[in-house]
Amino acid sequence: MNNPWDTFTSIYGTVKNDRDINFSNADNILIAWPVILDFINQFGQKKKGVQLLEYGCGTGNFAYKLSTLGYKVTGIDTSEEMIKIAKLAFGKDIKFLNGDSSIVSDKNKFSTITSIMTFQFIENIEKTFEDLSHALKSGGIFAFAVFNPAFIKKSLRACLRSEAQFARIK
Prior knowledge:
Blueprint: H1 9-12, H2 26-43, E1 51-55, H3 61-68, E2 72-77, H4 80-90, E3 95-98, E4 110-116, H5 125-135, E5 136-145, H6 149-157
Parallel strand pairs: 1-2, 1-4, 2-3, 4-5
């Protein structure tokens, strides 16, 4: 079965001119990005080349932003189509991998892991957090942003239309 996120590249793709970016990305770009950037700037390692994992990287724009700050970034996303776009746009600067948290190796530890608006769509959240915690160096930081799951459930019950409706909500 194809990954449903593959069909959302035109909506959630941010490899575009600012004026062409879909409004659905506003919460990511205008709210989550600055908060996470401030957090890792305040608490993360400052030296160039620090290993950073951007989990649920989509089309790679936030991963690219992180790489411009000097981080050595690896981006992972379950959407093959989004990874294709990310590689075309930023592949010379960033390592992009298609898969879920199970592809993160214990051998390549990250000083920082970031993830924006990803975890509320993951069915086996416990396994994902276990995998990512094994990939985080001792003393590293893990910064993420999510929608409140209760809000998503309430919205779906109220039949509000959202691009995220395909997510399995329990």
